[in-house]
């Protein structure tokens, strides 16, 4: 199917590295403007300028989205990142008012357009999404470990240290704090001072929860990232190969057209072979 010349020109424009870097620069500028908008002193002195620059960056986003919709047509809505970009930009046009205050605050999400614009960030996000099934199983394993350990800790140390292990809820919170390493020494001090064998319980819990279960999260994430990088490299190689094929086809078509013109010119001049 033939592509309209205007759409082809728009597609080539948005795929140019210079255009993509320009969009990234505008996103960073918009992020700075959103940050400056939280300072009353800056807004009182330069509020008009900040608002003007903010609307200018929004205009760039609208033009860019419009170009992408025009270039890709209905295929634009098949890409998850495209829909994300459209929604993030559309939020800026939510009318002012108390009922829409939350949506207006969400305009800061325009900064997240870096995730869809920078290829490496898209790869990381895609890798995190693919890890959800594996991480769900590991999270369930960690939850079971926390629950069983909390029940045991409540029965063993509830009387000794009711502040941390008096109830099942307090034990769950305390053991989760131990898992994260946040001031864990003060959490276990009362129990270990009263019971000399308590260190064995907490040591076993830390080894199982932190050094085994949490490292499983890291292993799953690294494996998914490696797999996503390989797929991204394969996709990039296909894009380069397609671009080379398109360029070759264009050159061959130009050569064939040139041959026809030369043949026509020879026939007109009646030049013998």
UniProtKB/TrEMBL annotation:
Annotated localization: Membrane
Residue ranges crossing the lipid bilayer per the database entry: 18-37, 49-71, 83-103, 124-148, 197-222
Gene3D superfamilies xrefs: 1.10.287.70, Voltage-gated potassium channels. Chain C
CC terms in the record's Gene Ontology section: voltage-gated sodium channel complex
GO molecular function, one term: voltage-gated sodium channel activity
Entry-linked PANTHER family: SODIUM CHANNEL PROTEIN 60E (PTHR10037:SF62), VOLTAGE-GATED CATION CHANNEL CALCIUM AND SODIUM (PTHR10037)
Protein name, UniProt field: Ion transporter
Organism: Nocardioides silvaticus
Lineage, highest ranks first: Bacteria, Bacillati, Actinomycetota, Actinomycetes, Propionibacteriales
């Amino acid at each position: 199917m033939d592509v309209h010349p205007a759409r082809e020109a728009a597609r080539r424009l948005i795929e140019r590295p210079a255009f993509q870097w320009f969009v990234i620069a505008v996103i960073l500028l918009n992020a700075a403007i959103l940050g400056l908008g939280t300072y009353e002193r800056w807004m009182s002195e330069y509020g008009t300028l900040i608002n003007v620059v903010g609307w200018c960056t929004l205009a760039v986003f609208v033009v860019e989205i419009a170009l992408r919709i025009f270039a890709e047509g209905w295929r634009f809505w098949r890409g998850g990142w495209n829909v994300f970009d459209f929604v993030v930009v559309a939020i800026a046009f939510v009318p002012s008012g108390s009922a829409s205050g939350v949506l207006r605050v969400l305009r800061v999400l325009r900064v997240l357009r870096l995730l869809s614009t920078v290829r490496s960030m898209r790869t990381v996000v895609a890798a995190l999404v693919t890890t959800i099934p594996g991480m769900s199983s590991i999270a369930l394993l960690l939850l079971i470990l926390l629950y069983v350990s909390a029940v045991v800790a409540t029965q063993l140390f509830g009387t000794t240290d009711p502040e941390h292990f008096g109830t099942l809820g307090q034990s769950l919170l305390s053991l989760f704090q131990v898992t994260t390493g946040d001031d864990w020494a003060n959490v276990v001090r009362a129990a270990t001072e009263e019971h000399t064998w308590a260190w064995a319980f907490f040591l076993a819990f830390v080894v199982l929860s932190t050094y085994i279960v949490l490292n499983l999260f890291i292993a799953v994430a690294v494996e998914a990232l490696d797999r996503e990088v390989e797929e991204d490299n394969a996709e990039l190689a296909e894009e380069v190969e397609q671009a080379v094929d398109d360029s070759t086809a264009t050159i061959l078509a130009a050569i064939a057209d040139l041959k026809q013109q030369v043949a026509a010119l020879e026939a007109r001049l009646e030049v013998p072979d």
